[in-house]
TrEMBL record:
<dbReference type="InterPro" id="IPR017716">
    <property type="entry name" value="S-AdoMet_deCOase_pro-enz"/>
</dbReference>
<feature type="modified residue" description="Pyruvic acid (Ser); by autocatalysis">
    <location>
        <position position="99"/>
    </location>
</feature>
<keyword id="KW-0456">Lyase</keyword>
<dbReference type="InterPro" id="IPR003826">
    <property type="entry name" value="AdoMetDC_fam_prok"/>
</dbReference>
<keyword id="KW-0670">Pyruvate</keyword>
<keyword id="KW-0620">Polyamine biosynthesis</keyword>
<dbReference type="InterPro" id="IPR042286">
    <property type="entry name" value="AdoMetDC_C"/>
</dbReference>
<keyword id="KW-0745">Spermidine biosynthesis</keyword>
<comment type="pathway">
    <text>Amine and polyamine biosynthesis; S-adenosylmethioninamine biosynthesis; S-adenosylmethioninamine from S-adenosyl-L-methionine: step 1/1.</text>
</comment>
<dbReference type="InterPro" id="IPR042284">
    <property type="entry name" value="AdoMetDC_N"/>
</dbReference>
<comment type="similarity">
    <text>Belongs to the prokaryotic AdoMetDC family. Type 1 subfamily.</text>
</comment>
<dbReference type="GO" id="GO:0004014">
    <property type="term" value="F:adenosylmethionine decarboxylase activity"/>
</dbReference>
<feature type="site" description="Cleavage (non-hydrolytic); by autolysis">
    <location>
        <begin position="98"/>
        <end position="99"/>
    </location>
</feature>
<keyword id="KW-0865">Zymogen</keyword>
<feature type="active site" description="Proton donor; for catalytic activity">
    <location>
        <position position="119"/>
    </location>
</feature>
<protein>
    <recommendedName>
        <fullName>S-adenosylmethionine decarboxylase proenzyme</fullName>
        <ecNumber>4.1.1.50</ecNumber>
    </recommendedName>
</protein>
<comment type="function">
    <text>Catalyzes the decarboxylation of S-adenosylmethionine to S-adenosylmethioninamine (dcAdoMet), the propylamine donor required for the synthesis of the polyamines spermine and spermidine from the diamine putrescine.</text>
</comment>
Length: 151
């Protein structure tokens, strides 16, 4: 039971920024986007990296994901990465003003599963080249889902 109530150190001290929630006229910003006549909240990429490297180093993973998030145009609010053992996998997340980037790695299988979900004008596809450079996968699988699809 103690594990359920102990502090995880994952709560950010950041408060919402007016720059993120109000436009230059003082109006509430609408982060939904419209592309090709379709209106939606944001783009969620599911990324599988096969034959990847550097999957057991939390500091390296943190660095690569931060660079990838910035490349999308996102604002990083908080990050947390957990290393399961000296040679085990890593699970982690970057909380973004625009949503999140998460990763789960299996170094013994040279495999990583990532979610990149960004709203507004951010472009998650810009993160892919950073992931390729940082993890050197032999193969990348991508799937896209538009979140908050309207009509």
């Amino acid at each position: 039971m103690d594990a359920l109530v102990s502090p995880l150190g994952m709560v950010s001290d950041y408060s919402p920024s007016e720059a993120q929630s109000v436009d230059s006229h003082g109006e509430a910003k609408d982060y939904f986007v419209e592309r090709d006549g379709v209106r939606f909240a944001g783009t969620h990429l599911i990324v599988d990296l096969w034959g990847a490297t550097n999957l057991d180093d939390p500091a390296h993973i943190d660095s690569v994901l931060r660079e990838a998030a910035i490349e999308t145009g996102a604002t990083i609010l908080h990050g947390h990465f957990h290393h399961f053992s000296p040679n085990g996998g890593v699970s982690g997340v970057l909380v973004l003003a625009e949503s999140h980037v998460s990763i789960h790695t299996w170094p013994e299988r040279a495999y990583a599963a990532l979610d990149i979900f960004v709203c507004g004008i951010c472009n998650p596809y810009k993160a892919v080249s950073i992931l390729k450079k940082g993890f050197e996968p032999e193969r990348v699988q991508l799937a896209e889902h538009k979140r908050g699809l309207i009509g």
